[in-house]
Specification:
Largest sheet: 5 strands, parallel
Radius of gyration: 28 Å
Strand order of the largest sheet: 12-15-18-11-19
Shape: elongated
Number of helices: 21
Structural class: alpha/beta
CATH superfamily of the largest domain: P-loop containing nucleotide triphosphate hydrolases
Distance between the termini: 77 Å
CATH topology of the largest domain: Rossmann fold
Mean pLDDT: 89
């Protein structure tokens, strides 16, 4: 009889919970039993592990009763990440490798039938969980996953290309294994190595704001949105440049901090979208308007992040906003306020961060030409009302900047000089964002409650002006607070210590462009 313990992790939302793979070999009728709330992908590991061990020239205990317990028993386990720890547990329980040193490692990886290791989802989340728990442990991961996990500061990560690369590190002293299997040649001599973090130093070329001619008002609004972290809605006829502006918005945002980069990379790793060469770049997600509510906010079993979480610390661009399903748009209301999304299911509950900047674009009417000088609108008042009513009042109230993007005359479009570059605009936005962080520890869009009253610094004239404007325009309490946050950002861009009447007056013009 033999017993071995191997450590691994399974994903539970953005967290990676620790899993102990217990393998027991006993005399009896030959069998291979997996217990511990394993999903279908995990149960299929029995065949992958058996073939991989045999094809590597190792001995699989055919004539014994094999029991594999995945503890804790009440935690669901999915995907093929437990293939490698199960294989190592069987080899340790049968005495082919030394089981004692395995306690200092955590393993994850999917096995092919030849014994080669394939990457799995969530490697960065595993490394973050180890880092957060402050446990001294080494991670052993497949190629691709190891480079991700090594980005976490202080992590000790080893890359293994093949099952035999791992087995060679734990062969008992004085024991010589006969590795003469058909697939032994797949294990390269350099298959096992410690991975050091390698960050991409070459920045990816992004579209420049200088390409956009004219549209000074829209550019000003985008500068305010980037400086304060505000959401924005662009409204205008077809071809006026709404999508062109939105595609260049991410370049205006300040550089990501290390913590922000780790959070965004960990979420991308959960869905398999993260690449090491994209490290430190703010994510931009632009789902099609046919996307469902689950695709936007996340869901499934087990729960996985949606587009709003994949855009965490970045930009969520929703083009043709009224064409999205009503349920999908209404699902954005809570995340826009709280910066996170909680997905509750009967079996489990998961929470994902979702502090994104929403950039929406829409036409003013079904035909798109309401208010345009280029072409007459063909829509009836009822059609216009029903089209604009697809965006509910509560959702519109949560969007800070409502910006009109008119059509440019062809003469201005062809003869206008290039506008300000993205680099110059980003410099001003970064300076304004830094002023806010030094003053209050967060961007202006994240101010709430007492912190808003403390840091808004309204002068007496501005306070009187705000009271009159809010009363006459019928603003809600949320609308008033959001106008204050925008005004505070405008003051930061101007380098002002206080929020003045001029700053509030400019913020007022961004509250509503739709003719409801």
């Amino acid at each position: 009889m033999g017993l071995s313990l191997v450590q691994s992790r399974t994903l539970r939302g953005l967290d990676a919970a620790r899993v102990t793979v217990e393998v027991h070999l006993a005399n009896g009728l030959p069998s291979f039993t997996l217990v511990g709330l394993a999903d279908v992908e995990v149960k299929e590991a029995r065949e992958r592990v058996r073939c991989a061990i045999q094809n590597c020239g190792l001995q699989f205990p055919h004539n014994q009763r094999i029991t594999v317990n995945l503890a804790p028993a009440d935690l669901p386990k999915d995907s093929g990440r437990l293939d490698l720890p199960i294989a190592l547990g069987i080899l340790a329980a049968s005495g082919q490798i030394d089981g004692a040193p395995l306690a200092a490692y955590e393993f994850a990886g999917e096995l092919s039938l030849t014994g080669a290791l394939h990457p799995v989802r969530g490697a960065l989340a595993m490394a973050l969980a180890v880092h957060t728990s402050r446990t001294v442990v080494r991670l052993v991961l497949p190629p691709g996953n190891a480079e991700e996990a090594a980005l976490v500061p202080g992590s000790e990560v080893y890359r293994a290309k093949h099952l035999l690369d791992v087995v060679r590190q734990f062969i008992p002293v004085g024991t010589a294994l006969d590795l003469t299997g058909a697939a032994c040649s797949d294990a390269a001599d350099d298959g096992w190595c410690r991975v050091e973090p390698v960050l991409a130093s070459v920045s990816v070329a992004q579209p420049d704001m200088a390409d956009v001619k004219g549209q000074a008002g829209a550019k000003r609004a985008m500068e305010i949105a980037a400086a304060g972290g505000h959401s924005m809605l662009l409204t205008g006829p077809p071809g006026s440049g709404k999508s062109m502006l939105a595609q260049r918005f991410a370049g205006l945002l300040p550089a990501m901090s290390c913590d922000e980069a780790l959070q965004s990379a960990a979420i991308g790793s959960l869905s398999g979208r993260f690449a090491v060469e994209n490290w430190g770049q703010r994510p931009t997600c632009s789902p099609h308007h046919s996307a469902s509510a689950v695709a936007l906010v996340g869901g499934g079993s087990p729960p996985r992040p949606g587009e709003i979480s994949l855009a965490h610390n970045g930009v969520l661009f929703l083009d043709e906003l009224p064409e999205f399903p009503r349920a999908a748009l209404e699902a954005l209301r809570e995340p826009l306020e709280t910066g996170c999304i909680t997905i509750s299911r009967a079996a489990q509950r998961a929470e994902f961060p979702a502090r994104f900047q929403l950039i929406g674009a829409m036409n003013p009417c079904p035909c798109g030409y309401l208010g345009s000088t280029a072409q007459a609108c063909r829509c009836t008042p009822d059609q216009i009302r029903r089209y604009q009513a697809k965006l509910s009042g509560p959702l519109m109230d949560r969007i800070d900047l409502h910006v009109e993007v008119p059509n440019l005359p062809h003469t201005d479009l062809l003869s206008a000089p290039a506008g300000e570059s993205t680099e110059r605009l980003r410099s001003r936005c970064s300076e304004a964002r830094q002023r806010a962080i030094e003053r209050q520890g967060c961007s202006n869009s994240a101010l709430h409650g007492q912190t808003l009253d403390q840091h808004i610094a309204l002068d007496s004239d501005a306070l009187k002006f705000l009271n009159i404007a809010a009363t006459r325009l019928g603003w809600s309490a949320r609308g008033t607070h959001r106008a204050l946050k925008v005004a505070r950002t405008i003051a930061d861009l101007a380098g002002s210590q206080t929020t003045q009447v001029a700053h509030l007056a400019e913020a007022m013009q961004y509250r509503r462009t739709l003719n409801r």
